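Class, discuss our next protein.
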Amino acid sequence: MILSTTSNLETHTIKSYLGIVTGETIIGANVFKDFFAGIRDIVGGRSGSYEKVLRQAKESSIAEMKARAQKMGADAIIGIDLDYETIGPNGGMIMVTASGTAVKL
């Protein structure tokens, strides 16, 4: 499966557009991660625990989107967009949404 953020693929001809596909992941960030991330933010360091959680959520969302496109018979997903949101009380959850257009090549 070809994945692209562009609206076309230079080396391929799109034969048909199958529709929009999405993948969503919501991951909770626990209290200890929040505490240590806050300390790192104060001293200017990076928060490895948050970065790991965001990476996992992104990969999960893309995998879910790919699975939906494959069920539609797609060969590629174009125009991929990733959105990140904090939700829940005090932003305690992270939501990552991947969306794109499933196409047949």
